[in-house]
From TrEMBL:
CC per GO annotation: nuclear origin of replication recognition complex
SUPFAM superfamilies for this protein: Winged helix' DNA-binding domain
Gene Ontology BP terms: DNA replication initiation; mitotic DNA replication checkpoint signaling
Protein family: Belongs to the ORC1 family.
TM segment ranges: 47-66, 72-97
Subunit record text: ORC is composed of six subunits.
Chief location of this protein within or outside the cell: nucleus
Pfam families reported for this sequence: WHD_Cdc6 (PF09079)
Biological classification of the source: Eukaryota, Metazoa, Chordata, Craniata, Vertebrata
Organism of provenance: Tricholaema leucomelas (pied barbet)
Subcellular locations according to the entry: Nucleus
This protein's name: Origin recognition complex subunit 1
Role according to the record: Component of the origin recognition complex (ORC) that binds origins of replication. DNA-binding is ATP-dependent, however specific DNA sequences that define origins of replication have not been identified so far. ORC is required to assemble the pre-replication complex necessary to initiate DNA replication.
Amino acid sequence: QLDLLWTRKQNVMYNLFDWPTQKHSKLIILAVANTMDLPERIMMNRVASRLVKGCFWSITLFLTIWDSSSIIYSSIALLVCGWVVRFLLYCFLVAALSGDARRCLDICRRATEICEFASQKRTPEIVRMAHVTEAIDEMFSSPYIKAIRNASFHEQIFLKAILAEFRRAGVEEATVQQVYRQHLVLCRVEGLQCPTVSEIMAVCSRLGACRILLVEPSSKYLQVRVRLNISQDDITYALKDE
């Protein structure tokens, strides 16, 4: 389970994938992960380069040992409807929103259910993009997503800054000061006026009040630690048009 071997410096994964590249090595590494875009999402360049050098990532296929009945149900539905090619296209679509293979299966299964329900009312049909789109909208239509879309401009920038800091540090927790640095970078890139420290603390408090963030109860000011109370995929989806 590759994502369980992740460390901040990623030495474990680097060494693991470096061994097969050594001269006269007869070692073959088979890695399993739920994340569909694992190299791009969490791996440093030096680790990803081991995969390329060893030709391990030329074809990526992630099999999730998760809810076997759901996988069987989804597989049968795909075969009966005759849309295996469509399924691959839908995987690329969902991968743009979420790197989790399990969520991809969830969406495809829900799209099949929507199609079957619609077919009961009229002539039978195969699963189409409209069904997948409806399933995606249904899955990503939580009150939190609506709150993010209705948030102020700097609140949305702050959430983007959190995602950027998480990717930089490799851990899903950060201080307000670390996020503030990322916030300033995003503002400069967009040519926007940078908020003051007081303004950024107010932004953090508002996001914490609506439970999008989990804010450490402390008087440390900029050293207060924050975490997300929703998935990173939900934030990415909510801000995809921004």
